[in-house]
Amino acid sequence: MKFLEYKAKEIFARYRIPVPQGVVAASPADILDPPLPCMVKAQVLVGGRGKAGGIKAAESLDEARTVAGQILGMDIHGFRVKQVYLEERLDIGQELYLGVTIDRSAREPLLMASAMGGIDIEAVPHDRIYMEHIPTVVGIQPYLVRSLLKQLALPKEVGDQIASIVGHVYDLFRKEDAELVEINPLVVTKAGGVVAGDAKLVIDDNAEYRHPEYASLDQDRTPLEQEAHDKGITFIQLDGDIGVIANGAGLTMATLDILGLKGGRGGTFLDLGGTDDPGKVKQAFEILIKAAPSVILLNIFGGITKADTVALGVKQALEEMHTKIPVVARIKGVNEAQAKEMLRSIGMYPAETVEEAAELAVKVKSGGP
Amino acid sequence: MAVLLSKKSRVLVQGITGHQGQFHTRAMLDFGTKVVAGVTPGKGGTKVEGVPVFDGVREAVHRRRANASIIFVPAAYAKDAAIEAIEAGLKLVVIITERIPFHDCLEVMPLARSRGCVVIGPNCPGLASPGQAKMGIMPNQLFKEGDAGVISRSGTLTYEIVNAMTEAGFGQTTCIGIGGDPIIGTSMVDALAMFQKDRKTKRIVVVGEIGGTAEEEAADFIERRVTKPVVAYVAGRTAPPGKRMGHAGAIIQGNRGTAESKVKAFEAAGVPVAEYPVGIPRLLAAT
Question: Which residue out of B160, B237, B251, B263 would a mutagenesis test of the A interface target, given it has the greatest number of A Cβ atoms within 10 Å?
Fold first, then answer.
């Protein structure tokens, strides 16, 4: 789960991480009493909004409304701006970076900090980033904070504030099941205060059940992806025109790759899972058909899944939805012959191997096998 | 011999009374696995497929001398189940369960390591040593005894590849499905080290996918430490950045975790990479 900046900052505030004052608005008329002077910031689940013109300054209420009107509705890297956040303008003395993420290789949280904040952390030279693994169960110990502050070389009053922020950030990271907590920039104001200029928060989807309060938040999904998600179906829309459905994530990825090698382009990633329930197959096909592909490429490697059960689900779905979309199918598994016969009987195209199925899908798409 | 499990392994099934647990207990018995006990809290004293069920892991270990466990319990209870198994002294724990919160795994994996317990998974199809035993959900009929070790982040894609290997006459020592999550107990490098050490294993197949840097680390390890021939397949060449491709771990972040980077790393380490999954046997034939 990704969070818009203002939502992340609400959560930050709960963990006593200092954030600037701000108000969120969905239309200029909603703006009544913003902090002034302020920054008007587009709320989108994608980076690079500043460069795209999604962050602007305003001095007065009128100007704030005008600027908000310009930013609302903007398209930033494919995301429409539905909300703006009007935030107290900071008197910036220095910009730092602070983040906690999961290091897959070490299987531990990784604390990162840098005196070079305000730019993409990927662009900061490695020797300018303080990185330390945190043993999950014991958490951050004081010596780590001491060595971090030494590396950042900050005055004591600032260092003390950062020490407490680091603790709160790690606390949030653990308690909220975060994959990433990132403050970039972490602003040191000219007056010597420390405050989170921006807030990036990603929470593990697998932990959604522990945080039901976040379930209704907007994610970066297309309406059809959202519908599939709500039904528990793993589905991603891609920019090709061939609807790919397979069982298992790895096999679905491989099927898309094979289609690519045969000159086709996948329009969907749909993982049917390990199911042999015709009802589930039907539900998946309903989503797939709504994506309006020119042809559907089905690849099932059933070990336990019965091929004819899958074929029956496909047949029922196609008949009930009265669709004319051709289906090329490779179903391997128990009762393979019956499955092929069933598909052939409704005018579909059974294939022996994935490679053959992918070739056939490309041919059917361009006017017949 | 195979790695991790053999005919002698005494397997415990946690979550044995559930649909998955029951179904796969039958399949594992059919494969020749010594399934000696099951655990489902509250169902102690019953039997599943003739296997005695206990309320807790300690009891199962004490009464039936189980020394390895396979976990089918739902995600919300999987951390508890895994820690119960590790603390009961089991040295091999296979977690099939998918969608376990990452932070639970951040707690479980270091504990396992400190207790000398090998964890496989989570979100994995498990382990199979043909002619020996199986702790997993892979279809029994795919396998054939042989000298290739298989390491994979995927489930059904592995079935496809193992099936092609078996059809082409390349049997397996052990097939390890390491899992599709970001935090897993046994990494690709750990599994490579096991196969390098195993005398029966003469060649190794690695099935990778986008996301993370496991394949790059594996390539580096192969270059330095693996003397046996290794061949690979990498899924996700056409996957777009920023999207989780079904597996929690299969995501290209920025320019990290791409298939190109992984293929390049393997090739630089002298590991041929198949274009198609079924191309693996042809690469093996050249080893």
Answer: B160
